[in-house]
Amino acid sequence: xxxxxxxxxxxxxxxxxxxxxxxxxxYRLNGIANLEQxxxxxxxxxxxxxxxxxxxxxTFGYIESYSNILTCNKNKSRLCMYKKNKNETYQLHKQYxxxxxxxxxxxxxxxxxxxxxxxxxxxxxxxxxxxFYGPLAFVTSYPNTYDKYQNREGHGIWIHGLPTxxxxxxxxxxxxxxxxxxxxxxxxxIDITQTLLIINSEDVEKNISxxxxxxxxxxxxxxxxxxxxxxxxxxxxxxxxxxxRFDGKDYNSxxxxxxxxxxxKEDKKILITNINVIPYPGTSDLYKISFKESxxxxxxxxTGNKILIVELKNKQIKILTEK
Length: 323
Description:
alpha+beta; eight-stranded mixed β-sheet; five-stranded antiparallel β-sheet
């Protein structure tokens, strides 16, 4: 029954592009797989994404996985909490005064007293912390994939509270600190698995260009298309010569590895869901793309989260790093 519905949907979809006779002939001669390829191709076109994004909230980018966004402006010492409402739009919910690192600029190494600039998940909550950090702390994912690509060092960047029985300076060693009542409120009003933290020196960019997001999303699915249909030349065009994978594999070794894989000409099923495309703070035309990938071929099967850091150049993405 499910296959019948899928075939009907496919035929209706392609009716707007092809005559009924052409669709039926294609299906009669080649089966549903050929129509699937047509649909995969359509997903790589900006026309689809321009229409799809028309009524979507792109305050911070295109976001499917996060109901809460925390933004930190280091220069203004401000932490803001945005929550997605019933209309699927992000609204400012709370704004807090915050302490950040003593020194300004990008964090590069352990002990430089700088709060990093970037996009981070909250990986866990610590309920039993030293009283210096208040009642609890949220651990961030610093260093993230892009930090590691940039060879940035350090760890232990938290959102935490203020000392309960001690004095402290009006800065941190790199963490973000807010008063304890605010921290408790934050704890009660966010699900850390659905909360993203964006840190910048200035205000975090908002109201992201739908045209640029359409380009990035179309490129993402063009990358997927070349991967599914074993077009190694097109696939590698999406990678920067400065590419370095999370495990250290550089562009040349990655290229040799992928060419060996593509020569197998295996049939593949690749689904991409829970997509998030967010401009990377402190950069120009750099984006973090994250998604859930379900991959299945004759020899390998994988389901998990994937991250791409891409640069948008001349209307095409170039992947700098991936994990």
